[in-house]
Amino acid sequence: MHKVHLQTPELIDHQREFKHGTGAIMTVFFNLILLQQLNCLAMRHVIQDGPDSCIEEWILFDYADELQVLTERRLCQADLLSSAGWVTLEDNKLIAVT
After folding, report:
1. For 62-73, what is the mean pLDDT?
2. 57/92 Cα distance (integer angstroms)
């Protein structure tokens, strides 16, 4: 059996912030999704831009009084989870074609 290791483990290194754990995704409307994964807090908004295209807008959140290290962790994890992220590419493709 082979073990798999991430070359950049800080991508999934998280600080527990919420009692429910590290993940929640809430679809408010078909084109508006609120996301809390690991420490990434975001809103994904899809805007139709013609009959065959759309714009996917991501807004990332943090808290005004949080430590800089946590803000940096959120941004690092956004690289994993946001519109150009490594994990959500298939989600983004599905949203773009529906």
Report:
1. 92
2. 11
